[in-house]
User: Fold Protein-tyrosine phosphatase-like protein from Protomyces lactucae-debilis.
Amino acid sequence: DLLDHFQDTFRFIQYGLDEGHRILVHCEQGISRSATVLAAFVMKSERYHPSEAIRYIQRFRPIADPNPGFRKQL
Assistant:
């Protein structure tokens, strides 16, 4: 369940960006978990709808495809 981690990951990513750092979010395959975390970040920071956030991420990582359970959490 990634929902429990969204607040912490948002703060961590935002802090890194605020400090001028580059951010790398990864998981084993870079398809579902990391894409979901980034989609949640983009949704909150840019006020994107879930489908917009996923499409945005897919511009940079075309294989990004959060699984249906993670999509529901968004």
Summary: Residues 33-46 form the longest helix (14 residues). The chain has a mean pLDDT of 96. The helical segments are 6-18, 33-46, 50-60, 68-73.
